[in-house]
Structures are given as structure tokens and as C-alpha cells.
Amino acid sequence: MPVNIPRDLPARAILEGEGIFVMSDERARSQDIRPMRIAILNLMPTKEATETQLLRVLGSTPLQVEVTLLHMASHSSRNTAPEHLEAFYATFADIADQYFDGLIVTGAPIERLNFEDVDYWPEMTQILDWSREHVYSTIHICWGAQAALYRHYGVPKYELPRKLFGVFDHQVLRPESALLRGFDERFHAPHSRHTDIHAADIEATGQVDLLAVSADAGVLLAATPDLRQVFVTGHPEYDRDTLAREYRRDVETGQPIDVPAHYYPGDDPAAEPIVNWRSHGVLLYANWLNHCVYQRVPFESQNSAP
């Protein structure tokens, strides 16, 4: 089944070219099916790229998904045209009285800032608190995961001596978790961040389970036992060239950066990266939509409290 997005959203043409089934509001309304209402709080500066990555994995599931894109009203985006935000995005104030089946909170390249020093932190905390009553299950990515763990459970983050950057091997700790249904015992996922969270701090909460970790990259996946709060410290949704574009950007601007680990064949930046994480990335979001949202939310609760 398709992901329902605005007809003129730039991601639409890209996804259709890849064979991802997308549809407009008009066609969606003609189908007698309850779509999953999913909001995406997009904190990334390159919003169009992030939209496409997330819509791709959502559109690869067998469920119809109705997407609402959100941006921060308290922050001015310098990398996304105001016309794009005006046409396709809502703010928290626009949807504060609504209920959603799922919410995706993206990362943001601000890990080195203290949470309280982020200009939109007051709005961020308001949304995170709202999500616990108005969203059935929320999946938080990278900085979004760190922010939510800090806000909800007091889990701190730690600055790394060098950026964690590359594609890393991970081990499944709880194969019985619905989020990991169908996963291999070991799998790959990209990471790109300057800060870390520690497994011991998560375990000390007594309220969040560790689901997948890496010997080199630390915690990748954690969740509350009821799977209503999911935390992903890496980027299973990344495209083939996302790490390459980040690497070239940092090289061109003179920032200290290592070649992304286990990404280029022979660690040669001139070579084309080999994608070895996509199937598990798609499976993670499919499991989240199906087992954490669709199978648990009754049909009639679409517009009422979860």
C-alpha cells in the first residue's frame, strides 16, 4: 500500500522513479481503508533529502500511511526555502489538538550543544511531552533519540573525541522484540554523530530496554517495553551517498574528518559505497509501523486519545 503525500512534494517524483507507491489525497479518499496517521518532525537542515529518505522506508511497507510534515516554529531554517515549508509543513501549533498513530523525530547536527542551549529546546520539550499523550508510538533518530532519552529519563550524552562516522556491525540483544522480528543476529547500520549515550545509563533507568548494540558504535536501538518510545542512535534510513556527501562537505570546508569506516570499498573515497544496511532499515520501519502501531491501535481511535 502507498504513502499518501502532497502531489507537488519534490520527494514524490524521486520515489515514483524508484517504484515506491505514493498517492495523493484525492485517490486516498476513494479507498475504504484506515490509513496510519504519521507525523514527521523534521529537524534536519536539508529537509528535502530527509523527507525522501523517510518516505522511502515508510512507502516500502504494506500499510497506507498519511504523512504530516512538521518543522519548528521557533527556529529559522537556512537550508530550506521558506516556500517549501509554507507549502508542505505544519507547525506544532497547527496540530497540537490532534492525535497521531505514530511520530518520527529526526536527528539534527547540533549534538555538541547542551540541550538547553538549543534555540528551539523549549518547543522541543513541549512536543516530546505532548507526544506521550497524543501519539501511540514515537521513533526518535540520532539527536532526536538523545534528546528524548534526556527529557523523559534523564539519560546524559557524552562528547566523543572524534566523530563516530561510518557503517558498523550490530548485535541483536532481544530477538523476541517485535521491532527486531525478521532481523539477522548481526546487521549493519550507518552512524554519523559527535556524541554518545551509554548503555549503562539506559539500563539504570529501569524503564528502557537495550535492543541492539555495536562493539564499535555503542547503542543503536533501545525502546520502552511497550514499544511506545523507540530510540535509534544511527541512521538506517540513509541513502547510499549520504555519508559520502557529509564527508565531502567536511573535507571541502576544512573540518577534521576521517574517511567513514567500513563504507567505501578498500576505504577509498573514490570508490562507490556498497549498501549493506538497507534491508534491515526498511524492516525496522515496517516492524515499527506494523507491530508497534497498526496491530495495537484500534480502528476507531484515529481521532481520539491513544
Automatic annotation (TrEMBL):
Function, in words: Transfers an acetyl group from acetyl-CoA to L-homoserine, forming acetyl-L-homoserine.
Keyword Nucleotide-binding recorded: no
GO cellular component entries: cytoplasm
Single biological process term from Gene Ontology: L-methionine biosynthetic process from homoserine via O-succinyl-L-homoserine and cystathionine
Organism of this sequence: Gordonia effusa NBRC 100432
The protein's Enzyme Commission number: 2.3.1.31
Lineage per the UniProt record: Bacteria, Bacillati, Actinomycetota, Actinomycetes, Mycobacteriales
Entries under PANTHER family matching the protein: HOMOSERINE O-SUCCINYLTRANSFERASE
Family: Belongs to the MetA family.
Record keywords: Acyltransferase, Amino-acid biosynthesis, Cytoplasm, Methionine biosynthesis, Transferase
Record field: catalytic activity: L-homoserine + acetyl-CoA = O-acetyl-L-homoserine + CoA
Site-annotated residues for Important for acyl-CoA specificity: E111
Active-site residues from the entry: C142, H235, E237
Pfam families per record: HTS (PF04204)
Top EC class, one word: transferase
Superkingdom classification of source: Bacteria
Site (Important for substrate specificity): S192
Coarse class of the protein's main subcellular location: cytoplasm
UniProt-recorded name of the protein: Homoserine O-acetyltransferase
InterPro entries, per database record: Class_I_gatase-like, HST_MetA, MetA_family
